[in-house]
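Page 42, continued from yesterday. The earlier attempt failed because a stray header line got pasted into the input along with the sequence. Redoing it now with the clean sequence only.
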Amino acid sequence: MSKLLIVEDSIIVQAVFKDLLQDLKGFTYDMVSSYSEAKKLLASQRYEFGVVERVLKDAPHGEIIALFNKHHLAPLVFTSHIDEDFFDDFEGAQIVDYIQKVKYYNEAKVIKKLQQLKANKQTSVLVVSDSKLYSSYLKQNLQLHSFKVFNANNNADACERLELHPEVSLVILDSNEPYLNALEFIMQIRKSRTSESLKIIVLSEESNSFYTSSLLNAGANDYLIKEFSRDEFYVRVYQNINKFS
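This time it went through. Structure tokens are written below.
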């Protein structure tokens, strides 16, 4: 069972969550309404997932996110307070994702996202990049969503990883010449893995349409031009793995 901590100060929203969580298999949960209550629980118990309201009466500036991060837990933020400061936090802090509260309740989306995160633990991703720093950045963002992540720094290493881990279903290919020849790598992989069994997303600074079409024709499933936002990155990942789409 996966343990979940929800920090929500609205009694109405709490009631909706409790109703939805009755039918959510594979989870146990604690629910509190304040920063101070969450602090006590996090100090004494370990949680696998978290859902938080960013603005609380005793923590009005998003301090709850930092508290979760202190305990090595990245929360899913469910809040009506979305502003420029929040997006700065989203890029810099350890936040899984955010869902905005609206007039018509979005609690069901939160539950769906939790199911998705739990399912991601069974999904393996290979990050291929010759940059240790960028590889670490990509791995961190994927692990925030509970994916199992492997790394490779060149074509040969990537092919070896795929042989050792045939369960890998998604490759994130950071195309940096001359160390990584993306086209060559894709053509080699497609000799043994179909585009349905192994998705390949290419990341590159090159926006030339001929280069892009060459990669897609060779068997890449998708293509992202740097610098993309975390939002866009996650959207493309989920579009390709088709988890709970």
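Notes: Residues 122-241 form a domain with the Rossmann fold fold (CATH 3.40.50.2300).
Reminder to self: strip header lines before submitting.
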